[in-house]
Amino acid sequence: MTFNDSVEWLYATQKFGIKLGLENTQRLLSALGEPQSGLRVIHVAGTNGKGSVCAIIESILRSAGYRTGLFTSPHLVDFCERIRVNGLNVPADFVARGLTQIRDFSATWEHSPTFFEIVTALALSFFSQEKCEIVILETGMGGRLDATNVVEPLVSVLTPISLDHERWLGSSLAEIAAEKAGIIKQGTPVVSSMQSPEVVSVFKEAAAARQTKVTFVSKPFERVVIGLVGTHQKFNAALAVAAIYRAGLEVSQEAIDQGLAEVSWPGRFQIFDDHYVLDGAHNPAGTAQLVDTWRENFGEEKPIVIFGALMEKDASGMLVCLQEIASQIYFVPVDSDRTLSTEELHKNIPAEGPESFVCASLLEALEKTAGEKQVLITGSLFLIGEVLSVLQKGASPRRSSQ
Questions:
Q1: Cα distance between residue 58 and residue 74, in whole Å
Q2: Cβ-count burial 95-134 (b if 16+ within 10 Å, e if not)
Q3: What was the pLDDT predicted at 306?
């Protein structure tokens, strides 16, 4: 298959939905020669901030001279963003060959592998081929039954836990924390952000059952200015540095400072052309943090907000937060079959809330807000990917995915 053909085939596997469990991933990896067995891995799970933490860890280790592999999801514009070695996207020709191979040997399986299982196996295969010295692996959802949980990491990393993906992970913080804690392995060090008391109890209990303990990181990293915006990124930086130390990796203070200063993670309070602020916050906890970061940077200035969300997300909870800073809100559909309708979004704005409008598309909203001083676009990483594909000249159209 060509690259385009192979990616089309991969997107078609989304009809199999989300399947929690490790059997298919293990079977794929066995067919690929167990590429994960020789990799040293830092494994990261959590509700909010896990992508930023992964990016910070990778930036520091690359500054220290390690050959790094980074696996994250979803992508924003280009599928190849998900799999990177030393900061560079996986080549299209490897994707085409790898997906063709996976398609061929899974064609007769009774239970076909899902999108995320396939991409996880593809990533681990590429990292093995490229002889990565350290791999930073972000879970897709949950932890215990996430496709990435086939590795034996140097350290397990847990970012802040809040309500999200309740349909699959549970309706309480304790239930969700128990699923995230599934990445804790026997005798393996664990580091965590500060958590609510019920989450702390779950993590401590899970760690004790596996003969290890959790180090909770409570202070922000203050020594240098970090390349990511917001006070919360200082806490993410502190967690990233603690993870590197607990993994037993040698890094100098200079490498830490350089990695923190140079880290980049698009779509997380990304200021584009001094006009747009793009943030992929997609749950109430993340949106509350976004509101705090807005105030840190813009004070009492109120932006126009362009907002879109997926059906399974708590759009109402996010909009409660955004109403605190929004002057107006434009509702748009997200480029996904799972988009929440703009009419449904509009119902979540009370009469006393900011003036709001329904748009047929993102392009319509961008046209209507052109020339405004500050426009904040948020609600979904898929929406941020669509925005970037429009704003970045020459970018190819984005395809939505898990």
A1: 17
A2: bbbbbebbbeebeeeeebbbbbbbbbbbbbbbbbebebeb
A3: 98
Residue 243 pLDDT > 60: yes
78 neighbors 7 (Cβ within 8 angstroms): no
Q: Are 262 and 62 in contact (CB under 8 A)?
A: no
Query: Is the confidence at residue 268, as pLDDT, over 70?
Result: yes
Angstrom distance (rounded) from CA 242 to CA 325 = 34
| Cis peptide preceding 333, ω within 30 of 0 | no
Residue partners of 398: CB distance under 8 A and separation at least 6: 76, 77, 335, 382, 385, 386, 388, 389
Asked whether the whole model's pTM tops 0.90, one would answer yes
Tell me the residue ranges of DSSP E strands in 108-265: 134-138, 155-158, 190-193, 214-217
- Residue 111, both tokens: 């239970």
Q: Are 20 and 146 in contact (CB under 8 A)?
A: yes
Nearest Cα neighbor of 272 from 364, 355, 366, 356 is 366
329: burial class by Cβ within 10 Å (0-12, 13-18, 19+)? buried
Amino acid at 94: F
Residue 139 CB-density burial (10 A; 0-12 exposed, 13-18 middle, 19+ buried): buried
Phi-psi region of 65 (alpha: psi -120 to 50; beta: other; left: phi over 0): left
Structure tokens given for 19: 């399947």
* C-alpha–C-alpha distance, residues 339 and 120, integer Å: 25
**In this structure, is the dihedral angle defined by the CA atoms of residues 245, 249, 250 and 252, taken in order, positive or negative?**
negative
Handedness of CA 120, 121, 122, 126 (dihedral sign): positive
**Which helix (H) or strand (E) segment is 84 a member of?**
strand 83-85
Please say whether the dihedral angle defined by the alpha carbons of residues 130, 135, 140 and 141, taken in this order, is positive or negative. Answer: positive
How many residues can be counted in the chain? 402
Q: Which residues pair with 71 in a beta bridge?
A: 83, 137
Q: How many CB atoms lie within 10 A of CB 35?
A: 18
Residue 397: the pLDDT is: 46
Q: CB within 8 A of 87, min separation 6: which ones?
A: 58, 62, 68, 70
Continuous H helices in 32-78 = 50-63
Distance CA 309, CA 157 (A): 27
